[in-house]
Amino acid sequence: MGGLEEARARLEARDEAILADQVTLAEIPAPTGSEERRARWMTERLRAARLDDVQSDDAGNVIGTRRGVRDDAPVVVCAHLDTVFGPEVATSVRRERGRLSAPGIGDNARGLAALVALADAFGGDGGLRPQRPILFSATTGEEGTGDLRGARHLFQTVAERAHCAIAIDGAGDERVVACALGCRRYRVEYAGPGGHSWASFGAPNAVHAAAGLAARLSGFPLASRPRATITVSRIGGGSAVNAIPAQGWLEVDMRSTSSVELARLDRQLRVAAQDALDEENARRKHGTPPLSVVLRPISDRPAGEVPESDALVQAALSATRSVGRTPELAVASTDANIPISLGIPAVAIGGGGRGGDTHTTHEWYENYEGTRGVVRALVLLASAAGL
Questions:
Q1: Which of 80, 261, 288, 371 is the most buried (most CB within 10 A)?
Q2: CATH 3.40.630.10 corresponds to the domain 2-181+303-385
Q3: Model pTM?
């Protein structure tokens, strides 16, 4: 325990340095699919932490290893590189009365800074020596249309036989995410002949069909246990106010903690999309070409859950208490979805401090007892990998 206590003390003493890394990371743009600059910075820092074999994989993940005393299945600790913001969004960090504000300052600049701090604690000859190897990874494509691309590749390759996994995502030091929120997203596209709004009236209207589907989805019966949601998040089509739209589309987000419920919603969506098509085509004037419909998958995040009785979950709850916090089991969609869906125990935790307005340009972070979250991650990682 002496080594762990010393490592905790070093982390607490490095609070300002960890915060400085967080600010640096937040100011490096990293839109989903364009994480290269931030990945290069992480590569340099993981090498400076003297991890072994620091490199990038085919998905753009940055990976480094701390060898263990035993050549066992590794413990994976990861944090995602990307943000939800495009390249046009300014990333400079603003400071006011102890609060840092910037797009992605918490999600996930804090998680990446915590990952670097953990690498420093374990790396090199003077670092903590785990029983199991630890695989440190900064992953790509966690947000939105990235569809957990980096985590999928990671757990299909070098982490395929991982002992367990810990994802560090955002701020906070109380939540323990052991229930993976599944998500299926589609773009539904209707297409037809279009035409003049007066001269061609009677031709099928692609926007009418899209609107008909939206109306159907708003009336879907949804389970409360396990909880499920469905959202029409975007809708559009047409080219002019005096033209019958030749295209109409909508994007749909379906979520649940149950893969069975997600599959049911998926089937219902397909039936409703066809019904809306048939209804609009049935109204068209004789001799006009019909509409068609295509469902294009946008993302498919698997659902799953690690039982509270699992050793990793219990270790996460204990680590939370060890830093004076009351643990809270939570549901979220994170990189941990992938190992959980593969039967690998995994949790997601925050990197400390407090934050809010996530996924907005005025996202903020306050370093309130920030090292508690990093120390919690250290205690959990030490427990999972053994010392």
A1: 80
A2: yes
A3: 0.93
